[in-house]
Design goal:
Chain A: Its cofactor is heme. The structure holds 2 protein chains of 2 kinds. By secondary structure, chain A is mainly α. Chain A has 20 helices and 10 strands. Chain A is globular and about 90 Å long. Chain B contains 12 helices and 2 strands, in the order αααααααααββααα. A two-stranded antiparallel ribbon of chain B has the order 1-2.
Chain lengths: ~550, ~270
């Protein structure tokens, strides 16, 4: 190919520089076929599809600013005396890690701004992942073929939590030290292996002289490396699966309606990156985050009230704060249930949302691919489940900030804690029921709109005196959009006796599945969408509307 | 003499005598009155205590009892000292407005002279810490860094890193230290008001207290320079997380909606 083009170009004069460069690169990288296959990739347009981009861009911002911080940070716990610019800590003994973080904040040019961008971007990154995950959840975008990608995303969220936590621990200030002490306590509460893991992690008795250096490797190398790999895998799968889209005329399970990557999304995504960077940088320039100099250096004999982790660990903090301090003593050993149960719950709460797509796939028994998104109201049980899960999470967050809620709303901290204890069990149930009812109400409204049209607000008086409101029929497109979703039928167990009259043994899992399926798709869980016949009958003139 | 006795029956004689008598009385009063006041100065303490007792009977006795011995509504004031009175009344906590988990701060309605009188009365009930002098509490020249270390060792458990306060059990709380004067901080440490433990000079020396006051003034007062921008209440990760969600993610979602709404228009062919 290259020989023929070079012959042609020689006959017609020199090719433009860009073409020659592309040719040169293609000969070595094979970019033509790659570009041809992907540059015209179509992406659908919806603001909620950009939430993932927020995460990607804040991740890039974190890496860029993090590299800058590594140039000045000393991951060492050697004891040194402070003689930098911050007066209220002059002459204090502290670890080298803390001193270098103070130097980054006060003596390195741009250091404090970069530190604040790094930290704010981390909070936004985790928040973005949370919101992105909920978008995927509530629209059913996790269904086949995207279950693996859901797990990739979930892993990114969990790894993001731990990367954030290890980063928060590095400055070795009094707040982060208290956080690590908390983590050590959680590790120690694990039966049998807890003490071994703690001694292994800290290189002996807490705090030791190793954890900053170890957390440093974990924070800047191990976890971000895994995350980078997962991000690439996540994006490759998005390309491979193609993006999902909301139902609408012309949008099918087999196509994607939208704009091509090149040039539309290249420009949009590129511009959006700078907008994200701009917003985060503006926040970092306006508001202080983690002012470690007011915390002081970490010393295990000091502690402060109002010691909380960053928000993404807040619900774990809440679980611990709300848990009664139970413990069991036997044969000289102590099982600290007051810490161990919250530790287990922390994992369970996260695992539940990770495993949900597989549960739903099992209940529906649906093996088809889904590329059209659900509107949350059209999957009431899933939506209600999601809201119940968020409720548990939020209750945990309230628990994590129980002291600040108490002081700022003039409540008793004991009352707030009791609220959290009760709401942890009752809240999700109420949220589930309420959400499901709201979804069904919205489904009924959609049904009414399709069958009777939109309320126009125009009141008409008929000759015989009756008042009616004029209903405007929906457009064809709107009606399509409102009725495009598919409604499952509950799975039946099937005949328990085969054709020969032999009784079949019904497995417990089958019964469970039938029960769940009924809960999901039974009469009480979805409003039948209007059929063509119903619509015809009403619009044929027999109706009065 | 003849002249005088000749006029002693004069009709105006009585008036003259009366005038002389008045002048003499007035003069004597004028001569002795300042001396009388000077005498009262010598027993100023007892007079102040007297005044303080009157104020006490109006504002305090209903809870603390008529002799300061305490009732079921208020503790005994015997031995709490003048410093405690100066703190409690000076910050407006006493007289208490209403019972509750903790007596709240409110605008103080007593003048400093009245507070001193009350303090003198309460101090007369039993020996206790006296009101510190400016020389004792003035943080000028104190070791701020040493104060920070002491603050983190003794105070942050309740008042938090930045001295913004924190929650205690059952609706009680440690207050924000921002607008508290150096004298009141000193007195609070000395006397341990309400739920606060007391730190007498045997625990925290006068110099220690000065250092702590200097540190509190450095990190949480009007003169504090916020190094990194808005402090978000100095509350730590909870307010930071809320800010990140509302203004970080909130702004980014608004931006996303804006970008998504500006799409390339397909050409109608």
């Amino acid at each position: 190919m290259s020989t023929t083009t070079s012959n042609e170009s020689r006959s017609r004069g020199k090719a433009p520089a860009g073409e020659r460069l592309a040719d040169w690169a293609d000969g070595r990288l094979g970019i033509y076929s790659l570009a041809k296959a992907n540059l015209r990739k179509i992406f659908p347009d919806h603001w909620s599809f950009m939430l993932g981009e927020v995460c990607l861009y804040s991740f890039i911002i974190i890496i860029l600013t993090g590299v800058y911080l590594t140039l000045f940070f000393h991951p060492s716990m050697n004891e040194v005396e402070y003689h930098g610019s911050y007066v209220p800590l002059q002459g204090q003994l502290m670890s080298e890690a803390y001193r270098s973080t103070l130097n980054i904040s006060f003596d390195v040019r741009g250091g404090l701004l970069i530190r604040q961008i790094h930290h704010w971007a981390a909070l936004v990154f985790l928040g973005g992942m949370f919101v992105h995950m909920m978008r995927v959840f509530f629209t059913g975008a996790f269904r086949k073929p995207r279950e693996i990608n859901w797990l990739f995303g979930f892993l990114l969220f969990v790894l993001g939590m731990f990367t954030g936590f290890t980063g928060y621990s590095l400055p070795d200030d009094l707040l982060s030290g208290t956080g690590i002490r908390f983590m050590e306590g959680a590790i120690l509460s694990v039966p049998i292996v807890g003490t071994y893991i703690s001694f292994f992690l800290f290189g002996g008795e807490f705090p030791g002289h190793d954890f900053v250096a170890r957390f440093y490797s974990i924070h800047i190398l191990l976890l971000p490396g895994i995350m980078l790999g997962l991000v690439v895998g996540h994006l490759i799968l998005v390309f491979y699966h193609k993006h999902t889209q909301f139902a609408g005329p012309g949008r099918k399970n087999t196509n994607v309606v939208g704009m091509p990557l090149m040039p539309v999304y290249m420009a949009k995504a590129g511009g959006f990156f700078f907008l994200v960077f701009g917003v985060i940088a503006a926040i970092a320039a306006i508001a202080s985050i983690n002012p470690i100099w007011t915390m002081g250096p970490y010393r295990p004999d000091q502690v402060s009230t109002g010691a909380q982790p960053d928000w993404y660990m807040g619900f774990a903090e809440g679980l611990i704060r709300a848990m009664p301090g139970w413990e069991i003593n036997f044969w000289g050993h102590t099982l600290v249930l007051g810490v161990f149960i919250p530790l287990v719950l922390f994992g369970v709460v996260l695992m539940v949302i990770a495993a949900y797509p597989f549960l739903e796939a099992w209940v529906t028994g649906d093996k088809r691919e889904h590329h059209i998104l659900d509107r949350p109201r059209n999957a009431p049980t899933r939506t209600a489940f999601g809201v119940a899960w968020i409720t548990v999470y939020m209750v945990g967050l309230i628990g994590g900030g129980n002291d600040l809620i108490a002081t700022h709303f003039h409540l008793s901290i004991n009352a707030v804690t009791w609220f959290v204890r009760i709401a942890f069990f009752v809240g999700p149930v109420i949220a589930f029921i309420v959400t499901k009812r709201i979804c069904l109400g919205l489904q009924r409204r959609d049904r009414d709109k399709v069958l009777h049209g939109r309320e126009s607000g125009i009141i008409k008086r008929l000759p015989h005196g009756e008042f009616i409101e004029v209903h405007e029929p929906l457009s064809q497109e709107q009606m399509y959009t409102l009725t495009a979703h598919e409604q499952y039928k509950p799975v039946e167990i099937g005949p328990t006796v085969d054709e020969n009259g032999v009784e079949r043994k019904v497995k417990g899992s089958e019964k469970l599945r039938a029960k769940l399926s009924k809960a999901y798709y039974g009469e009480d869980s979805q409003i039948p969408k209007p059929t063509v016949e119903e619509y015809r009958e009403i619009t044929s003139g027999h109706g009065h509307h | 003499m003849k002249k005088l006795s000749a006029r002693r029956r004069h009709p105006l004689a009585a008036v003259v005598v009366l005038l002389l008598a008045l002048a003499a009385t007035g003069g004597l009063y004028a001569a002795f009155a300042p001396a009388g006041r000077a005498q009262a100065d010598d027993s100023a303490q007892s007079l102040t205590i007297e005044e303080g007792k009157k104020l006490y009977e109006v504002g305090c006795a209903s809870c603390h009892g008529t002799g300061g011995q305490g009732t079921s509504d208020g503790p005994s004031l015997v031995g709490v000292g003048a410093a405690a009175v100066d703190f409690q009344v000076g910050t407006g906590r006493m007289p208490a407005q209403q019972p509750g988990a903790q007596v709240q701060k409110k605008p103080n309605i007593y003048s400093q002279a009245e507070i001193d009188q009350l303090a003198a009365y309460v101090a007369s009930l039993g020996a206790g810490p006296s009101v510190p002098t400016k020389q004792q509490y003035d943080p000028a020249g104190a070791d701020v860094a040493r104060g920070g270390e002491l603050f983190r060792t003794n105070c942050t458990q309740c008042h938090a890193f930045k001295g913004v306060g924190g929650a205690l059990t059952k609706g009680k709380f440690a207050p924000d230290l921002k607008d508290v004067s150096a004298k009141h901080i000193y007195e609070a440490m000395q006397t341990g008001p309400q739920n606060m433990p007391s730190f007498p000079d045997t625990t925290l020396t006068e110099q220690n207290k000065k250092d702590i006051i200097a540190y509190v003034k450095a990190i949480n007062s009007d003169q504090t320079v916020s190094q990194g921008g808005l402090e978000l209440g100095g509350l730590g990760p909870v307010s930071e997380g809320l800010f990140a969600w509302v203004f970080g993610l909130g702004a980014l979602i608004v931006v996303a909606v804006w970008v998504a709404a500006r799409t390339a228009k397909a050409k109608k062919s």
